[in-house]
Amino acid sequence: QVHLVESGGGLVQAGGSLRLSCAASERSFESYAMAWFRQAPGKEREFVAAIGWSGGVTYYTDSVKDRFTISRDNARKTVYLQMNSLNPEDTAVYYCAATLAKYNWGIPAQYDDWGQGIQVTVSS
């Protein structure tokens, strides 16, 4: 089991930026694909971005493309989500997740390990 801890959330004005971090405990961190999901009040958890084992492959949901960037540092066992040009629709609890699956990284059921979540609030 991978223990994941998110940090970096908070309150920001529309148009601003935040960088989320997710630190992992797993020694073989580089074996896991990593992803960020988010869940707004009253809505289902939705995929935001995913990154492959070496960081060479990334996927984004359409609403965050060209605004968010996912990256990872395997030496630090950390995955990041740089969020720019934030808008109120980005307000949600953001979750980091880890999977050994080799495909379907956009599906929550593919992930066995989740962080506790961190709040991101964008004011208008």
Describe what this molecule looks like in 3D.
With 124 residues, this protein is an all-beta fold. The chain contains no helices and eleven strands. The protein has strands spanning 4-7, 10-13, 18-24, 33-39, 46-51, 58-60, 68-73, 78-83, 92-99, 113-114, 118-123. Strands 2, 4, 5, 6, 9, 10 and 11 form a seven-stranded mixed sheet that branches. A hairpin with a 6-residue loop joins strand 4 (33-39) and strand 5. The chain is globular.
By secondary-structure content and strand pairing, the structural class works out as mainly beta
Global morphology:
globular
How much strand? Answer: over 45%
Residue-averaged pLDDT: 96
Order of helices and strands: EEEEEEEEEEE
Number of strands: 11
Annotation field: number of helices? 0
- Which residues form runs of ≥5 with pLDDT under 50? none
Amino- and carboxy-terminal Cα gap: 39 Å
Cα Rg = 13 Å
The major beta sheet can be summarized as:
7 strands, mixed
| Helix content, binned percent | under 10%
Task: Indicate the topology.
Blueprint lengths: L3 E4 L2 E4 L4 E7 L8 E7 L6 E6 L6 E3 L7 E6 L4 E6 L8 E8 L13 E2 L3 E6 L1
Parallel strand pairs: 2-11
Antiparallel strand pairs: 1-3, 3-8, 4-5, 4-9, 5-6, 7-8, 9-10, 9-11
